[in-house]
Amino acid sequence: MSFVSPPFNIEDGEDMENPLEGLNEKQREAVLATRGPVLIFAGPGSGKTATITRRIAYILSSGVPPEQILAVTFTNKAAQEMKERIGHLAGQAAGKTNGLYIGTFHALAVRILRSHAGSAGYLPHFTIFDDDDALSLVKEVTKEQGINPKQFPPGMIAHTISGLKNELIGPEQYAEQLGLADLFPRTLHGVYVQYQKELKAANALDFDDLLMASVTLFRKYPAILASYQERFRYCNVDEYQDVNAAQYALINMLAAKYRNLAVVGDDAQAIYACRGADFRNILNFERDWPDAKVIVLDQNYRSTQTILDAAAALIGHNRVQKEKRLWTAQGAGDPIRLAAVENERAEAELVLEQIRELTAGSYAPRDIAILYRTNAQSRMLEQVFLEHHFPYVIVGGLRFYQRKEVKDIIAYLRLAMNPRDLVSLKRIINVPSCGIGKVALLKFLSEYLGTEVPRHARAPRKSHEALTAFDRLMQDLRGRIKEERASSFVRHLLKTIRYREYLNDASEKSEERWENIEELVSLAKNYDEPDPPAGLEKLLEDVALMSEEDISEGKQEGVTMMTIHAAKGLEFRAVFIVGLEEGMFPHARALTDIGGELEEERRLCYVALTRAKEKVFLSLAATRTRFGSTQANPPSRFLGEIPECLLEVDEEPTIHL
């Protein structure tokens, strides 16, 4: 097979921009490597997104049909940005990008399973359970099995099951691999088995099932896999350091035939082990694909050399890594500021004082971010900023789709689409409250099988009438699904169940909650398709697949406060990293360094440093109140790993590293 790249050639598309224009040497090399396996190490600020999008545009320009190209990302936001950039590069050339598939791993899995639901063991219109739905179901199962929630918290069990699925370990494999002699494995196995049975009975999959079921489908039906291998002959994966075992298996199966697999990532920015990500996948790529071409994007366009040198010195203390040195043409810049203060309040006040100095000059509040290891650290910062009336924005608060009123209406829509979705049924059967008693509700739930009116002769008269009315409502909604477009359907639902009146009676924040409902109706307008069921189904899919990274940062003007995990992929002119103490950052659970946790904490600090374009401020407190008591922690070891020549230490108070 020839690995010679095709020449740049545009037929009938003179308005397509040259994908090679403006690239540096390494980026150009990555764009031109269109055949065979390619590993692209992309350091922070190295123009990764531009390289990926131009690479895909270049493949398109060579005459490859767009439907043969697959690009997988980790967030819908990243996928949308990639689509827009490729569309811009392609210009208005008719059909140039039609059929090009860009989406998340989970969206790809949904697409595969929707097309082969029967073969995968599901009925059409299956429901996708989000994390809250999954936890609710685990709680029910543990309660039914008489499991002590204090001994085995449902959240811990749900997290463990999720981890097993990410490793493609089903209940049977779990029993075979670990045995069931000990109490926890035996308990977990029992819950896992019943949890999967309940999901299947509800014709539902949780997030992790989407990937696991897709891999299982491909393994069971080679012909189905072969059809997707023919379809996706050019596979591209962004953020490859964050893939888990299921995602790794899925993409490698798809790329196995034509071997045109390009992965982009940075092992130094692997910070999602808590989600099952295994950064060793990117380090082992050359083992998996011995003929892989390896390219390192080492020119940074974001930060000063001082910031890059500090980050490099820090990450150099990790034993497991791909060595690379970032450089920039932007000059050394200012030294990194470091300050130690008495306590967390003094830290917050110092941060505010330094931010005021910045905003008195050329910095706007939106140019500045305060990053912390855990969400709890924002409390004192918020308190001080509120006291001084300084604008700020918290990123990572309660998400739109997690708000009660939004979840209520989504549950109605899901149940209308999938009558077997008992989790949604249990959520909304008494919302708005209609006087259904507990006994009647339990009986109804045990007999509810879809559109048939259940037998509830023994239920009190009021409950009987309410249940009958609920049945009529669901019958009406299922009939309207085939006739009304998404936004009209949602409006009808809200009017029929008198949801606004319910909010007025149930909440002192009814106006704010109703505004969220109005926003949901506005969203539904985007899914008003000629085929009503398809539009509503797509709406529910997109809501289920929405991840935290996709949440809009809003239009508020202010200093951004967020966890370092939430800051991944973002950049700011000035960055404040607070709480640099042992036990805070690195986190207390990483201090024993079991399973490489300390190295992950160091990668997290690397990510924090490299969010900054111009200035970095580091701070720590001599004492900090945690869990109701005052604790004194030594300075973070990460501070001692940054060369002193790169630091400017505040004289008052002093600090000894």
From TrEMBL:
Keywords: ATP-binding, DNA-binding, Helicase, Hydrolase, Isomerase, Nucleotide-binding
Binding annotation for ATP: 42-49
Domain UvrD-like helicase C-terminal: 305-569
GO molecular function: 3'-5' DNA helicase activity; ATP binding; DNA binding; hydrolase activity
Residue span, UvrD-like helicase ATP-binding domain: 21-304
GO annotation, cellular component aspect: cytosol; DNA helicase complex
UniProt-listed GO biological process terms: recombinational repair; response to radiation
Annotated InterPro entries: DExx_box_DNA_helicase_dom_sf, DNA_helicase_UvrD-like_C, DNA_helicase_UvrD/REP, P-loop_NTPase, UvrD-like_ATP-bd
Catalysed conversion reaction: Couples ATP hydrolysis with the unwinding of duplex DNA by translocating in the 3'-5' direction; ATP + H2O = ADP + phosphate + H(+)
Enzyme class: isomerase
Similarity-based family: Belongs to the helicase family. UvrD subfamily.
Protein name in the entry: DNA 3'-5' helicase
Species of the source: Candidatus Sungiibacteriota bacterium
